[in-house]
């Protein structure tokens, strides 16, 4: 599952703790190109590990501003480093109102436990 952290009109994209637990030993990460338009319906192959593959989706219509270059040489960071540096990318929403529907961490936790 995609995990998002809103930073104004920007969003950091990673994966949730639940997905990290399921996707142990990540061996490959695919990152979208910087400056690419990324629509909500578009998914991309975020990571592959132990025979499992995770596709990530966009939180809103946005433009990819930066990729996490650290993942190019060390894909395992996505499951071993829970800090901000382990996210996949940062994007800029082209429709900031789309971001109003994102759950914060507490609401997400309540949803998966409920």
Number of strands: 8
Q: Which stretches are poorly predicted, pLDDT < 50 over at least 5 residues?
A: none
Overall form: globular
What class, by secondary structure content? alpha+beta
What's the gyration radius in Å? 13 Å
| Mean of all residue-level pLDDT scores | 78
| Number of helices, counting only DSSP H or I runs of 4 residues or more | 4
Query: Secondary-structure element order, as H and E?
Result: EEHEEEEEHHEH
State the major sheet. 5 strands, antiparallel
Estimated share of beta-strand residues: 35-45%
Proportion of helical residues: 10-25%
Distance between the termini: 17 Å
- As laid out across the biggest beta sheet, the strand order is 1-2-8-7-4
Description of the molecule:
The protein is α+β, with helices and mostly antiparallel strands. It has a domain at 1-44 and 82-90. The protein has four helices and eight strands, in the order ββαβββββααβα. The chain has helices spanning 17-22, 70-73, 77-80, 105-113, and strands at 2-7, 10-15, 26-29, 37-38, 43-49, 52-57, 62-67, 89-93. Strands 1-2-8-7-4 form a five-stranded antiparallel sheet.
Reconstruct the topology from this structure.
Layout: E1 2-7, E2 10-15, H1 17-22, E3 26-29, E4 37-38, E5 43-49, E6 52-57, E7 62-67, H2 70-73, H3 77-80, E8 89-93, H4 105-113
How would you concisely characterize the structure shown here?
By secondary structure, this protein is α+β, with helices and mostly antiparallel strands.
Keywords:
20% helix, 4 helices, alpha+beta, five-stranded antiparallel sheet, 114 residues, three-stranded antiparallel sheet, globular, 8 strands
